[in-house]
């Protein structure tokens, strides 16, 4: 197997991380204090008034996932994730959020990343698009200069909200298109296929944006969603699938992913909440050995026991017994399926 230092040192690209999911408890406390806001970990939960209570409280709302079924675990996750948004109010908050992420992953040798953001989770609270975008823009500039971390943003739509809301936000974000490389689809998946968002994806495609969609793991209709994204039907000619792990059980889907050269962003720590080592390793191994361009990512590090991209590559190594060459393949996959300019790609590995 590969060694830890090799994995730490290899230049990295991160393609699946929700910037709001990088809000650490430390930063959350700081922003909440600065804004004079109340801090709760779940909607209508107890207000946290002492910094020292925060960590124990987080442990108690994210209990041993093995004791919850998939749905309970998923709903609890989304509730606590969206509750965290309340800490983000002014431009400086979004700047601090992004800078904290860039600085953390710079120390793990990330050279380029494409973080997601969820504009609808902010506008619904009365925070203007301009507020988040200007905070992100300043952080993006400084991260390139100070940390040598380049980035482009992916605007995600919350699929449990309406296609009309997605379209509205898409249009409103066009003034920031120089910062945004792609459009994604996240949040709670059952009953919300990518095809519902066909119109906004088609428009974004025509406007030159890259496309991706979450096809979460072990949800009832995931296979159909993978098929929609991978075929010309669904969102049409997508470049990536986020998660998509269930394709490992379907040789025809694997063939389609290979034929259409679709990259796949995996987040192994996030799957540990609702699957087992025994299940997970073989599925990742199947996709990797088939030649699907998979890469390792963190998803929501602050909500997953502070597991960042480094920990996810280490876990993948452990699950699949990857050697140095395999780790290089994973790193190269990430570069290849990224939406960076060729000159940026060439400078990474
Ligand atoms: C997410 Cl784990 C997960 N799944 C779907 N959407 C998300 N947004 C943030 N984290
Ligand atoms: Zn995700």
From TrEMBL:
GO CC terms for this protein?
A: cytosol
Q: Which domain of life is it from?
A: Eukaryota
Task: Please give a single GO biological process term from the UniProt record.
Answer: hypoxanthine salvage
Cofactors demanded by this protein: Zn(2+)
GO MF annotation, one: metal ion binding
The UniProt entry, under InterPro entries, shows: A_deaminase_dom (IPR001365), Ado/ade_deaminase (IPR006330), Metal_Hydrolase (IPR032466)
Please tell me whether the keyword Hydrolase is annotated for this protein: yes
Keywords recorded for this protein, A-Z: Hydrolase, Metal-binding
Matching entries from Gene3D superfamilies are given as:
Metal-dependent hydrolases
Q: Is the Hydrolase keyword given for this protein?
A: yes
- List residues of the Adenosine deaminase domain: 11-349
What NCBIfam families does the record tag this protein with?
Answer: aden_deam (TIGR01430)
This one is known as Adenosine deaminase-2
